[in-house]
Amino acid sequence: MTETHATIPAGAPVFPPGRYGRRREPGRRRPLLAALLAVALVAVLSLVAVRLYQQYGDPNYDAEVITYTGITDTQVLVDFRVTVPEGGSAVCVLRARDRDGAEVAREQVTVSAPPGERRVATRHRLVTSARPFIGEVLRCRPA
What we know:
Shape: elongated
Helix content: 10-25%
Order of helices and strands: HEEEEEE
Strand order of the largest sheet: 1-2-5
């Protein structure tokens, strides 16, 4: 014979007492705490995004390779153009890779624009440890 209680609605499951532990009572919701945590998370992520943009995403320093020539077993000449703020300077990282893609040279070069100019075209000789296949500019940043 099964027990029925007047407090249990019809169709609700009846669990044997003491078998499944006690039922949880509905907990108090804390929407204010969740909202504060969400605002704090957005603030932290915004600060991280601004910092990364300042470090890596400055559009004032843009470089493009014009050509790479003079390839020998020990060097490559890289002609490149850098856009900097008017009259400013930049530090650019150049590298050379061999046919397999292995890096055979890496060097930092400082490029300065004449007063009133924003674009600087320059040539740099990279000394390599093996025969290079390509010369490239990885990035430029403020000097």
